[in-house]
Design a protein that fits this description.
The chain is mainly α. The protein is built from three helices and no strands.
Length: 89
């Protein structure tokens, strides 16, 4: 279980690094992104491991990846291309 948690944390770091590398202009500060990636991966591993039970390490890592990506996507800012319409009556 320790190796599974460590693998999930490393997976979260890798996903956070990929997000900062690809979408740096749309994300907040890097330490926040890295912490969010690791925390999301550990939480996803915990939820998946609790739901499926022991012996499902690959599925737990898949759950960790899904939750990490979902939590990282919450940090994205809009690109700024869309203009808001003013409410003139």
């Amino acid at each position: 279980m320790i190796l599974e948690a460590l693998g999930s944390a490393v997976l979260g770091l890798i996903l956070a690094w990929a997000a900062t590398h690809r979408l740096a202009h749309r994300l907040p500060a890097r330490p926040l992104v890295y912490c969010t990636g690791v925390a999301g991966a550990l939480f996803g591993d915990f939820v998946t491991h609790t739901a499926l039970g022991p012996g499902t390490a690959l599925l737990s890592l898949l759950g960790a990846a899904v939750i990490a990506v979902a939590s990282l996507s919450l940090l994205l800012r809009p690109t700024g291309r869309l203009r808001r319409r003013s409410a003139t009556a």
